[in-house]
Design a protein that fits this description.
single chain, Beta-galactosidase, Chain A, domain 5, 5-stranded antiparallel beta sheet, 17 strands, about 15% helix
Length: about 375
Amino acid sequence: EGPGYWSYGTTFNVLLIELLEHAFGQNFGLDRAPGFDQTGAFLALATGPSGATFNFADGSSRRHVEPAVHWFATRYRRPDWLAGDGPALRRELDAPGNGRTGNRFLPLLLLWAQEDRSADYTRLPLHWTGDGAVPVALHRSSWTDPKAVFVGLKAGSPSGPHGQMDIGSFVLDADGQRWAVDLGAEDYHLVETHRANRWTVFRQNSLSHNTLVIGDALQVASGKTRIVRFSSDPAFPHSVVDMSPVYAGQAATAHRGIALLPDGRVLVRDHLTGLKPGVAVRWGMVTTARPGETGSDSLELRQHDAKARLRIHQPTGATWVSVDTAEAREKWDSPNPGTVMAAFTVQAPDSGTLDLAVTFSPGSRGHATVAPPRAGPPLDWSSPH
């Protein structure tokens, strides 16, 4: 359900363990649940160099101070799990009212604060994937470079807890900025009311996410997807999600791979088969950056004092357009000020097989590289995960 819900569920779990240990001298095995001794790393892993989290499902991208992470860091002697916590604390303390009204768990920091700030954050993995009911993959180029590249890729099912139609969607950080964004949660009063159709809400459905749209149809809500390839090889770290179940009836197979390339670019590679000839397939990425001139296969993005470039390598002839995401689509939708979708649409050939390849180039790495990456269909990238 995203990093925010990690806080909600895990903090109360930790509070119960503390209560039991103080009252009875034991916690009756609650700390031996599978994965419990590793979950303290999740917020660090899911927070990008921009300071924003990978807010999949309907979570918020805002990173808060989490006293529970301090508890885990102390209990398991892993101060590196506090990566990203210091800046979050400064933001909360500098906020109006000193931030003391927005975080109900903040007082617990007086009990659990981990004072060791000399952690070696390189102990954390650069590349990580989870095999739970909501699989995600996370890749970053560095833990010490503030301009590092960070990508989060989402699998699972729209029908999961607090789910959205975000299968194959991704967020992307580089040069200290969040370039590919998730619009986040919609007002619960709009999407959780009796007999409400949550999939008509823009932020909930696949039209608003950084994924594919085939023939203007939505993803199949009941589809369940997996990450089928994962590699932490420094030469070509990548993940591949089999999106076929959420495009059932629209394509025979659909696979998306995301990789960090040695030259600093990020590759997003899609391979689809069994498409209806002539059907429109849209590739989209929502951003808070200002797009430059559209109409070609290259699009410059600017944000604050940083810039980046998107380039279409496959298919040839595709050109970028800007799609409005700022204005509310329907009366029940919220506006998304300051956002726009960089997108292109192509038609499936008579063969029904379509390959898409897009690279993202951070401005700090230069834009000189225009050659297409030497990467075939995602299923050919490595051995199965």
